Amino acid sequence: MPDLVEMEIVKNSLIAIAEEMFTVTAKTSKSPIIYDVLDFSTGLTDAEGDVVSQATGIPLFIGMLDFNAKAPLDKFGKDGLQPGDVIIVNDPYISGTHLNDVAIVAPFFHKDELLAIGVNKGHYYDIGGMVFGSWGPKGSEVYHEGILIPPVKLYEENRLNKDVLDLLLENSRLPSYVLGDIEAQTASMKLAERRLKALVSKYGLDTVKATMDKIQRDGETVAWNRIKMLPKGVFRAEDYYDDSGVSEDPMKLTVKVEIDDDKFDVDLSGNPPAVRAAINTTYPATVAAVRIVYAAVLDPHVRYCQGFVKPLRITIPENTVFNAKKPYPVGIYWETMTYAADLVWKALAPYIPDRLTAGHFLSVVAETIAGINPRNGEAFALVEPNPGGWGAGYDKDGESALVSFADGETFITSIEVIEQRYPIIVERYQLNTEDGVGHGEFRGGFGIVKDYRLLADAEFTTAVNRSKFPPWGVNGGLPGTYNYMLIIKSDGSETRVRKVSGERLKAGDLVSIRTAGGGGWGDPRKRDPEKVREDVMEGYITVDDAKRIYRVVLRENLEIDWEATRWERSQPSP
């Protein structure tokens, strides 16, 4: 029996390896979306492809690293993998997400025995397709969205397959960025291999393998214990996706969640069929989305492993928008993937208020601004998530200007990086108090306004949701506001947009990003008048808002007129 103290050391060493893989990738990559935004994730699995450790990384990827590890196992088998192999894959139907998200996967051996698998999945700026940046709302099949890579060996027994590399580089508008990011991801694998060998050398193969097994058993035990503490029953929710991309009609989405001492089941049956537009998402991505909320509900502080999600059962019928098959396009998959999580969130929030808030702005509100940089004559592409307003909790206001839960550990691109690397000036970046928030006893957080002035001609692509159906409130809290963007031409004309693909913009034009405020929690009339006064003092709401929404009367010096307030707050809401 391996020593328990040594096993604890090995467990934390496996976590450290995953985190060091993450750091190495961020410090050596070519693209700002990797080194500045951190739009990637790293982890280790056991020999079966089940996750044993991972860095924090982007939540979109956290719950799907196992699919990426198992893709080469399914294709090559354990006997078809050798020391020194490095596999590259972006096939969304087996590895999740869209073609931009490319995984580097490497098997690690002790002598001739497969011990572990390393996974590093990150967003590449351009992988071919119809528009600069590859993703967008326009495509009607996956082949419009770039080059699709099945699991292929980029390195075979430490020998680079230059033909595979050349094929990838020739299909990108930004080949030097693809090369730089591949090399960074591959470097993380070499480091992980060295660390694992050192771990086995110090503690022995049996201890390392026993620790991996114990991680899975402990994760499952914790999960079942946490499930026993949850409210029991059947919980349902519905919402509407702005439109299918094929027509302007909204799509109704539904979920049923069933929790008992021996189950945590999520059923996404009855949802719309897949469409010939880029909004579809795939089975691995939908599973990952549900796993995020499952983890938040059970215990957000538990280190993720495969054992922890073993009790979760998810039903997703094939060829629906949540489980698209080839060749249905998936370029903006995240906008549907996030709804899968948000439906579970919405169903459970009223019953687990200490873990789940009211609805947040949800959409990643991503954009691509791409073209030729006149400073150096080179192609450029800015791709990023944008922050918005989160929903209020049962005892707190929502957070302002945070990225969507889907991108939880990522950052926005630094303004300094934007203005140094791209022909763009950031003219304004502030809280979106103009559109406001969902009011309540506790109000939602504020979205943002960010204005980009173009210094060169460029292509613009975006795909935004919650533009028609705002974030939801809880227990009488009001809904939030809307996500959208404005294109303001140099001639002063202004167009409000939510889905644009490859729109041609001119130098001098302005792109204004507007994100939504989160939903409120509780009846606005119950809000503490002192909090209302503070919001007025901070410029978040006006004096008129204080009276109209919260029935709080403020004197000219912004002190509260308590007598008037008591009377006003006793009257029905308008």
Structure write-up:
It contains 14 helices and 20 strands. With 574 residues, it is an alpha+beta fold. The strands form 4 sheets. The chain has a 7-stranded antiparallel sheet with strand order 2-1-5-4-3-6-7, sandwiched between helices. It has a 5-stranded antiparallel sheet with strand order 14-15-20-17-18, with helices on one face. Strands 8-9-10-11 form a 4-stranded mixed sheet, covered by helices on one side. Helix 6 packs across helix 7 (175-203) and helix 7 (175-203) crosses helix 8. The mean pLDDT is 95.
Number of strands: 20
Q: What structural class do helix, strand and pairing data support?
A: alpha+beta
Q: Report the span from N to C terminus.
A: 70 Å
Q: What's the helical proportion of residues?
A: 25-40%
Spans of at least 5 consecutive residues with low confidence: none
User: How many separate helices?
Assistant: 14
Spatial ordering of strands, largest sheet: 2-1-5-4-3-6-7
Radius of gyration: 24 Å
Q: Largest sheet at a glance?
A: 7 strands, antiparallel
Percentage of residues in DSSP E strands: 15-25%
**What's the mean pLDDT score?**
95
Shape from CA axes?
A: globular
